[in-house]
Amino acid sequence: RLYSGVSRLISGLPGGLVQTNLFACSIFAACSGSSVASAATMGRVAYHEQVGRRGYQARLVLGSVAAGGTLGILIPPSIFFIVFAAIADESVGRLFLAGFVPGIVMSALFMVYVALRAVIDPGLVPQSPAERQQAPGLGARLRGLVEIWPFFLLMVAVLGSLYGGVATPTEAAGVGAAAALLIAIGYRSLTWKALKAACLGTVRTSAMLFFIIISAKAMAIALAYYGVPVMMKGFAAGLGSPYLLLLIIAAVYLLLGTVFEDFSLMIIMLPFVLPMIRASGFDQVWFGVFMTVLLQAGLLSPPVGLNLFVIQGVTGAALSEVMWGSLPFLLVMLGVAIVLVMFPPLALWLPAHWIG
């Protein structure tokens, strides 16, 4: 339903269904909290239809589904920011707002890249005679909007209650769960079996997150006992330049991001990195966004980025094709990370003016 609705809604844009991949992946990842799961799910849906039946260039399709899921981790609500806020003692609301503008900018740049490729070489995304002769009508777009409205309703329920001042982050999550339950009832897709599976999945996920956060806090306490934060601050001061520190941190995240799952890497690294970030005078909310961009870029970094292997596994395409297809999107992400360093208000302006 999500993929079909997005396809109807944005059909007609240069790039065809490749634009749908980006849009649908970002929505799915924002709801699921996992770019890897988003890439796997949308990869199964998109690849064989677009490459096998429609004759789209494999690299462009593979790159779009590998990169599309990384967008949803920046656009709220994001489980990454929730866990980061718990570990760094930061505001979830500020982190959500901080990730919104960079996420939209990155989405726009991805879509512009695909559109330019399609305009320069229309053979990459060939259209059928019917598609060339008939522009999508208002009715088709409205049907697409109807198909995807539940996903936007969930986001509005969570973010609206949070930023409207009527709910705490925990209560906003409850509002989102209630909205999801009502949507399932409305679509008559809620069975006792599905409800039981959803409840068990919620318990497992909540237990996992609590264990992760408690373990991270325990690790931070142990590191503090042995004086590691003081050593990290001394290391940061000894570098002489906070931007050199950022360069080293970025290189470490990109390198380890090729072999570690992004969520695990964040938990492992934060107790070491945060003392240096604080000592260097960087805003923790800004760093949360910067770190998230780097972690997602690591998933696309050859030769062993996790998303690359996930896409290769679910589609059966050659790994080299996935790598080359993902490379332009990786360069865009690194460009956004550089812009964040050069222009921090890209992330900080919205929370400063909305929350203060």
Written as H for each helix and E for each strand, in order along the chain, the element string is HHHHHHHHHHHHHHHHH
Strand content: under 5%
Sheet bearing the most strands, described? Answer: none
Q: Helix tally? A: 17
Distance between the termini: 39 Å
Q: What is the overall silhouette?
A: globular
Low-confidence stretches: none
Rounded to an integer in angstroms, the radius of gyration calculated over CA atoms is 21 Å
- Please bin the fraction of helical residues: over 70%
SS class = mainly alpha
How would you state the average pLDDT, rounded? 80
Number of domains: 1
The total strand number stands at 0
Question: How would you describe this protein?
Answer:
The chain contains 17 helices and no strands. By secondary structure, it is mainly alpha-helical. The protein has helices spanning 2-10, 17-32, 35-53, 58-72, 79-88, 92-120, 129-133, 138-163, 169-186, 192-225, 228-239, 242-257, 262-279, 284-300, 306-315, 319-342, 345-354.
